[in-house]
């Protein structure tokens, strides 16, 4: 009796939906969308296959690393660009039903392109339509869509108030979705900590297609998406952020010094301890001058206050930099963002609304953390190494201040107290071809190996938003937990286990997965039941 009923049900089902083996993934996807109540005229507006005329444009719109814009880069079978929450739910449910890998993209700045590239067949869910920004000055908060870019967010805050800001990254085209969910930071981190230290609420679509806010998702999941990476847990639609105060006048500077070992040496002892209003980033780069190779140190400063106060601080605490009054530029916070993003000094804030960067390079990044200053001898040999390697720059971002006051367990981002600097290894290049790519990527690896004795170890810490697939990946198969431990300890230290538990509870089938996602607990480690 039951068998008969089942048989007849399944035959009705296959008859009514008229599926056939020759149906393409697109056909199956469209049918599934329709079954999830997405109207047909909307489906054709949001689902692109490879023959759609705008497929390539949509795909390339948010590629931000030319390494993944070449003919050999694997392309998605389908791109979905939802504009309603129900479309996002349908995309999740249908990708799950059809058993296809889903990649989620906001600003596309992932350094390894993992928001839009995969080695298995995949589709992209691009959230660029979710980019509304509502700033509410009464509560000093804003809801910001994950497809918004940081520049748009800063601009919308500035429209409403000249004395509010948000402590996010300094590149205006970085996407909110990846940046915040990965624990994004900017040049106010010594004063205000990270973006994730200022979140009030969020909206996310989980693996069952539910749209959740902080209340309905619960504090565990809300904790996880404050630095654990959104892509392991769901599709983030928006974050509600708390704005931070910024003074009417801030001061910036940028100075360059050649082979300035003494200045860099002294700077290391002060950068994380100086006034919390001051953030000085230093970039060490090999350059050629009069046919001699040298190391140039570029010191870029952000001070939440005026130039005369800054002068007295640097005079007494960092005389080695030789900063003069003429080096300082006073301006409002929004103009300081333009300065940090290297726009010309006649550029207007409206440029922050531009969603397309001026240029896109081939690039590779890696990261490290420095816990003790490097000795003078160490710096001397480091400078030699920078010249020998040839093209890799090292960017030192000072910590301390607010960063060291917040416990590591407060958010998934664990690299707070005890770190003087986060170091980014950085190489950009313009020459096409695999030869160049191999050379320059190998240069970053060589520099990374060289730095081992100076930096954190056991684990050798790394920053999730500086995505680096060299430090370990998972195939999301049987060994995913052990594979995950390798990169997971580097990115999350002791927070990794909590992320795994939350992941296992919210997405036990590991639908939201990628090359470096949070794995689910091995089956034997889970509670049996249900
Ligand atoms: C030029 C440049 C400058 C940068 N400057 C800074 C900086 O100052 N400070 C800093 O902290 N970082 C900086 N970064 C790193 C940046 O924060 C990360 O690359 C960040 O992840 C980018 O977010 P995105 O949305 O643009 O990237 P995407 O490539 O779209 O996404 C990155 C990751 O997040 C996932 N993801 C994206 N959107 C969602 C979503 N809606 N829901 C769930 N998962 C999602 C993706 O699947 C992917 O795994 C910079 C990067 C670049 C290229
Ligand atoms: C589409 O669905 C049909 C019926 O389930 C299946 O036979 C076919 O292989 C699917 N096509 C693709 C490309 O997945
Ligand atoms: C691709 O999409 C178009 C609609 O944009 C559709 O007509 C066509 O059948 C699709 N191609 C495949 C192979 O599914
Ligand atoms: C990607 O490549 C295409 C074709 O070569 C080019 O037109 C486009 O500008 C490139 N985009 C990026 C972001 O590199
Ligand atoms: C370059 O190197 C030569 C030889 O070591 C030296 O004489 C010269 O002063 C150097 N030039 C600069 C600009 O440092
Ligand atoms: C802008 O920069 C130019 C060239 O660097 C300089 O000459 C000019 O004084 C600057 N203007 C302002 C307002 O700072």
TrEMBL record:
Residues 1-18 form the signal peptide. Keywords: Alkaloid metabolism, Disulfide bond, FAD, Flavoprotein, Glycoprotein, Signal. Pathway: Alkaloid biosynthesis. Belongs to the oxygen-dependent FAD-linked oxidoreductase family. SUPFAM superfamilies: FAD-binding/transporter-associated domain-like. GO terms for molecular function: FAD binding; oxidoreductase activity. It holds the Pfam family BBE. This is Berberine bridge enzyme-like 21. Residues 72-246 form the FAD-binding PCMH-type domain. Its cofactor is FAD. InterPro entries: BBE, FAD-bd_PCMH, FAD-bd_PCMH-like_sf, FAD-bd_PCMH_sub1, FAD-bd_PCMH_sub2, Oxid_FAD_bind_N. PROSITE patterns: FAD_PCMH.
